[in-house]
Amino acid sequence: MKIFSGQASPVQLQWLLWGFVFLINFISMLPMDGVVQAGAFTAISTAFYAIIIYGNIHFLLPVFYKRGQLMPYVLASVFFLALIGIARSYLSQYIYNQYFSKEYLPITTKSIIYVSAACVVIYVLSFIFRFALDYFKLKRQAEEMIAEKSLAELNLLKSQVQPHFLFNTLNNIYYEAYKEAPRTAMLIERLSEIMRYFVDESPREEVTLGTEIQFLENYIALERIRIRHEISITFIQNCRKEASIPPMLLMTFVENIFKHGIDKSNPENAVTISLVQENGYLLFQTQNLLHDKQTVTGQSGFGIRNLHKRLSLLFGSNYELSAQPAGKYFNASLKIPLQ
User: Fold this and answer.
1) Is residue 4 part of a domain?
2) 339 residues of the chain, pLDDT tens digit each
3) Which residue segment(s) compose the domain that 315 sits in?
4) Does 5 reside within a domain?
5) Which of 201, 218, 234 is the last residue of a domain?
6) Are 316 and 337 contacting, i.e. CB atoms less than 8 angstroms apart?
7) Where residue 311 sits, what CATH number does that domain have?
């Protein structure tokens, strides 16, 4: 089956995606919960993710938004997410108490709010899911039209997928969420800023340090909600934010911290990020505690190798990059010239 060619059907692509989502969730839960419990809660989570995404794509959007009923759409979405959040919370707590807990644990308002906030994030991602489906559909149509040499219709199809719909919808959801759940609204705002960065800033040759720092802070804020325990993160910034650097250079280290440097079952995770400007260079350093489950890839990791190649193209040999363990810590460092 040609998964990434124009021959794969949208249904096949969706099954592949849901299988991937199930596998990632199962692997992340497995070390803490065991095979049976991880499988049960992964199945519940994946099922509710599907309900949220397909409920929005196949019901809320066609019934309300496409008919120009914006306010009913927002209200119906809020009610839908609240209902899903409550149902998922009670179902998960019931199964946990019935089969896995040694003593009865009552459901709390805090847990319902937490699950509902996660539902909001999945709801926002449903728009990306919708755009992905549209993209593959348009790609198939475009290939057929190229064969027919219909360039005018091809350009029309390409223009149908626009990011403005997503950003406008995110703004509407943000204002509605702000009234009831300011923290959830803040997360939606950060997600919107990250997506704007990818659309508007990442294609550029250079961005300001201030823009890159804001992108990192938004990414860190969204990653925090996936971690069960609070993480101590110190972000030192001693640099001129008007200076320019190529985009996405600093992301690799921060992404690796959340992928490999955080023990989700340990309440004592400490991370230090430092961004210092000195003598015409920018020094970016990260440090996190090593833990038993962490895979120490050093400088051989895929992301680090790609970063090496990009730095060589950008700066030749005028840069320094290291990533290695030191005692009980894992340290990463990048030094590049500033424009």
Assistant:
1) no
2) 344 444 556 677 778 878 888 888 788 788 877 888 888 888 888 888 888 888 888 888 888 877 888 888 889 888 888 888 888 888 888 888 888 877 787 878 887 887 777 788 888 877 777 776 666 677 776 666 556 554 444 444 444 444 555 556 666 666 666 666 777 777 788 887 877 787 777 778 889 999 999 989 988 888 887 777 778 889 999 999 999 998 888 888 888 888 877 877 777 788 999 999 998 999 999 998 887 655 554 444 667 888 888 888 888 899 999 988 888 888 999 999 987
3) 207-337
4) no
5) 201
6) no
7) 3.30.565.10
Domain count along the chain: 2
Is residue 238 domain-shared with residue 131, that is, in the same domain? no
219-243 burial, b for 16+ CB within 10 Å, e for fewer? bbbebeeeeeeebebeeeeebeeeb
Question: Which tokens sit at 63?
Answer: 């019934």
Domain final residue, candidates 201, 230, 254: 201
Q: What is the pTM of this model?
A: 0.49
The helix (run of H) or strand (run of E) holding residue 119 is: helix 109-147
- Using the 8-state DSSP alphabet, how is residue 273 labeled? E
DSSP 145-211: HHHTT-HHHHHHHHTT--THHHHHHHHHHHHHHHHH-HHHHHHHHHHHHHHHIIIIITTSS-EEHHH
Whether residues 128 and 247 share a domain: the answer is: no
Cα–Cα distance measured from residue 5 to residue 136, given in angstroms and rounded to the nearest whole number: 9
